Amino acid sequence: MLITASVAVVVLALVVGWFMFGRGTADDGKVDVPDLVGQALEEAQRTADHVDLTVTVSQREPCADQP
Question: Does the reported pTM lie above 0.70?
Answer without folding.
Answer: no
